[in-house]
Please model this.
Amino acid sequence: MTATPSPTQTKTLTTKTMTMVAAINDALALALERDPAVHIFGEDVGVMGGVFRATDGLQARFGAERVFDTPLAEAGIVGMGIGMGLAGLKPVAEIQFAGFLYPALDQVLSHLGRYRHRTRSRYHLPMVVRAPYGGGVHTPEQHADSPEAILAHTPGVKVVIPSTPADAKGLLLAAIEDPDPVFFFEAIKLYRSLKEEVPEGHYTIPLGKARVVTAGDDVTVITYGGMVEVAQKAADAARAHGIGVEVIDLRTLVPLDTETILASVQKTGRVVIVTEAPRTNGFHSEISATIAEEAIEYLRSPIVRVTGFDAPYPPFTSIEDVYRPNPVRVAKAIRQVMAY
Amino acid sequence: MSKPTAKSKSKTPPKSAAVPAPSDPTAAGAAAYADAQGEMIQLIAPDGTVTQPERLPDVSIRLRLYHLMRRARHFDERAWVLYRTGRMGVFPPYGGMEASQVGTAAALTPDDWLFPTYRDTGAALTYGLPLAQTIAYWRTSPHGWAMPENLKVLPFYIPIATQYPHAVGAALAERRRGTRNVAMAYIGDGGSSEGDFHEALNFAGALNAPCVFILQNNGWAISVPTRSQTRATNLSRRAEGYGIPGVRVDGNDVLATYRVTAEAVQRARDGEGPTLIETVTYRVKPHTVADDPSRYRTAEDTAGWDARDPVLRLRAHLLAEGHLTEEADAEITREIEAEFEEALRVADAYPEPTPAEILDHVFAEPTPQLVRQRAQILAEEGA
Ligand SMILES: Cc1ncc(C[n+]2csc(CCOP(=O)(O)OP(=O)(O)O)c2C)c(N)n1
Ligand SMILES: [Mg+2]
Model:
């Protein structure tokens, strides 16, 4: 995997090989160190260091007042975080799995995105909610959901989904420093499966700037999070057949970097969008609509979406992989837009 | 080994409800148990001695409960072995909690409803979920999700606490239809922090729903001890806030769990409304077969609980009273082993699901979109 973190404020070139979960842990430690307002809380994040170890060692290092276990109640976690944010702290909550965010949706939909608006900026919520999401590792029922479109559909909430360790660190620090609420979804599949050089020390990657993973002239493949590596594999295969594929990693869904998307579409005229979320009304549909509205005259082929299906993510291990897009399905879509 | 009774009997609340005391995480479950000794219903002591002879169920019931506990334990033990050899999926063990699950579920008939969580395989087996199907569920085969028509049991609930309001609705429906059937739902100490738990208790009280709510306080919610979960030291008292009876019972004494549950079921059948039963027990095993509890507790803590093993407790009682012989016990072992191996053969023979099955059962009538998506899967993956 190519490491192009493009950090904006790297003070030093020293790097360290890290997994994504280690890079997230590093970002959280830096945030706690730099800003006493930062507090980390959630289920099992304290002594245990989180079920994926994202907060490993943080309670021992920063104390049980800054890093603490809450009772098992997601509405309470997000609701309490809102109160902490109103009163000047920087809450960084962990929801154990994105599929267990649902009890908190009342707080998210009713309040999290509305506070600045309903107080005309007298109050704002510098809150981050982190949640592991997505499939590919044979988790039990409801542990593999991809609910990012629900959040992206909620006014006033930003949505960030990193695809590499270096991006995860820089984006998470930017999210924590952002004055508004940010949902930060972490692909379970990527936590430990890929390692790369991650700059040491503090740096941020601005929210709202997509990353061109690989440049190409024939097809634009737009994706994010756990699907980036899948898209890249398909792009590599296509390249071997002489097709130039430009892979764009959105990094953030809100704000959306339409500039990078449109520049690429104007160049290639062919678009494949890849997500593992359910088909109907997914964020892929928003991207597709944006391109249709703003660049339809450049299109040489219909847009193709490669997505999950209109069924719950299957808990049936032996057929689970049918649901989640794989490089073969993406490669087929690339051939399809080329052949049109 | 840790002598729980010697540990803090004090009810001094922790400094902050949200802040755990990592210096002494092992005391949590044991201390909860010690706190509860005086206040919880117990019919036989950990060594099998009878403490409340007048409330003992009939011998035939005691023997039935013993058989059911042995059967539940055998499943738990075999599941571990099968997991290690790749013949079972990730499984949340309940070994050590059999009295809490078997004694409660045994008070139901198949006309009653059962809403189990992932922890409650022992309860579901007791209620009547067939072994082969239960194996299939934990192997994540779709066969495990299709519940038998003659039972009113739902697939194990994975999201915490969501089952509680469902039980209220099912119970209310039974009442509206004029039956005497009840609904039983399980939850953990951790789950009792969720809003759904509290809303359900309040609904059930307000609407006089024939529900029996089992709250298994096993000391832990993954890594969080009950005393960090809540400042309350007696979870059964939560019932008071909703105007319904709350009962606290020794969750490792199957005769006690059976007795109090049977009484609660009777009250519900008679139209006297819901009951909350806290079974005080302990999660001796890891959270799941894939969990490493050494990150948050010591082995010494769990060892104190082995001495309260619910199966050995009833066994000691039955042997001492002459209701069980070593030979009869060996015969039970043979019986449950044979039953399990036969079920395993049945489960092994279930056909593997086909790829397009991921789209089955979304609607009664698939939408045009699902029809297209199915065609796509058939074209890409084959039938
Ligand atoms: C809504 C929701 N939040 C979080 C989880 C993740 N989770 C699974 S089990 C568990 C702990 C549950 O503890 P408890 O209720 O005491 O039940 P036990 O596991 O001890 O039986 C957590 C946090 C979940 N499954 N659902
Ligand atoms: Mg528990």
